[in-house]
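Ticket #4471: structure export looks truncated?
Reporter: QA, pipeline team
Priority: medium

Steps to reproduce: submit the single chain below to the structure queue and open the exported record.
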Amino acid sequence: MIKNHPGEVGAARSLVFMEKKWFVIHTYSGYENKVKANLEKRVASMNMQDKIFRILVPMEDEIEIKDGKRRVSQKKIFPGYVLVEMILTDDSWYVVRNTPGVTSFVGSGNKPIPLQQSEVQAIMRQMGLEEAHPRIDLDIGESVRVIAGPFENFIGTVEEIYPEKSKLKVLVSMFGRETPVELDFTQVEKL
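Actual output as written to the record:
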């Protein structure tokens, strides 16, 4: 819900979202982790835990092979941006906006725009966070049709389900014998 406060002097219209949403804040590039730490301290010191919940610097693993050695490092998905899960009120906006290193909220003018749920899920999935795993309504022994990938249009039987990886093992008939194939949940449909 958006709530306007007419009569405010020198300020844009107030925005209030009564449910928690994810917002994106812009920071100086390279200062994302410092902004996260500063904001966490401000939330604690100003007792805003009931309005500002989670602060994330979206990261993903990057694999580098240098001199024949494999190295995994963390890479920022959106350099210069930090995600904040919060209930937007004048007070929570003020705390976030006036945190050292924060340049602005992403939105139109002084109007922060929350991320859509599908955008949040895509970011969480890219980061490899648990809550982003899709669920599948299949049981072991059920028949499925492969709808994407090299085994498209093959019919198979679910042998194992790996919910933590969003994958399943399906037995498909190839060259006259059952062959196990590991597929993503999104590559199959229930018959």
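Status: closed, not a bug. The export was complete when the record was re-opened. Leaving a note from the reviewer for reference: Residues 32-45 form the longest helix (14 residues).
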